[in-house]
Amino acid sequence: MRSRRDDVDWGAAVERALAEGLCGFGGPPEPDADERLARRIRRFRDIDYGSFVWTRDADGLYWLGRIEGPYFYDADVAATAVDLVHVRKCRWLTAPFDESVVPSAVVATFGRGGRNFQQTHDPAVGEQTQRLWDERS
After folding, report:
1. What is the DSSP string of 64-126?
2. Distances (CA, A) of 79 to 59, 73, 115, 134
3. Domains, the chain, ordered by start
4. SS3 label, residue 49
5. 48-65 burial, b for 16+ CB within 10 Å, e for fewer?
6. What is the pLDDT of residues 105-129, one digit of tens each?
7. Which of 66, 74, 109, 124 is exposed most, by the fewest CB atoms within 10 A?
8. How many Å apart are CA 51 and CA 133, to the nearest integer?
9. CA pair distance 2, 24, nearest whole angstrom
10. What's CA 41's distance to the chain center, in Å?
C-alpha cells in the first residue's frame, strides 16, 4: 500500500488502511491516461473476495487481511492525502506479525521492494497464510 509518489508518507497510508478496513494503492482517478495503472486496477478489481493480503507497517511489522468488498475510488480528502484511493474493503486481523512467523515467500516479496500491488508466487504461501489466519481470527 505504498504510494508511488515520493512526497507521500507511506506509513500514514498503511495506518489509514488498517483503521478504515481498506486495502489498495494510489494513483490518479483517470487510469485511462496510464495503461500500466489501468492494468493494475483491473488485476486488483478482479481479485476474489476472501483473498489474503499482506502489508507491512512503518515499524516493519506484517499485517494480514482478507478482501471483503468491491473496488472503488476513494476521493475522500484523507484518502487523497495519503494516496490510498484505489481501494477495496478489507478485514485486517487486530494484531500484526513479527517477520519470524510470516511465510518466507511473503517476506521475500516485500524484500524485492517496489511500490506495486504484487502477488506472491509460491505454492505453499496460501496454506501457510491460512494457518496464521485461523490461529489469529
Report:
1. EEEE-S--EE---HHHHHTT--EEEEEEE-SS-B-GGGS-HHHHHHHHT--SS------TTHH
2. 21, 10, 17, 30
3. 10-136 (3.10.590)
4. coil
5. eeeebbbbbbeeeebbbb
6. 999 998 887 656 778 889 999 999 9
7. 124
8. 12
9. 9
10. 13
The phi-psi region of residue 21 (left if phi > 0; otherwise alpha if psi is between -120 and 50; otherwise beta) is left
pLDDT at 115: 58
Contact assessment for residue 53 and residue 66, using Cβ atoms and an 8 Å cutoff: yes
Q: Looking at this protein, which amino acid is placed at residue 68?
A: E
Distances (CA, A) of 117 to 45, 61, 133, 134, 136: 12, 18, 21, 24, 24
What is d(CA 26, CA 67) in angstroms, rounded to the nearest whole number? 17
Nearest to 2 by CA among 82, 73, 63, 78: 82
pLDDT for the residue numbered 75: 95
Q: How many CA atoms lie within 13 A of 73 on its CB side?
A: 9
Q: What is the pTM of this model?
A: 0.92
Record the cell numbers describing residue 55, joined without a space: 502489508
Which amino acid appears at position 108 of this protein? A
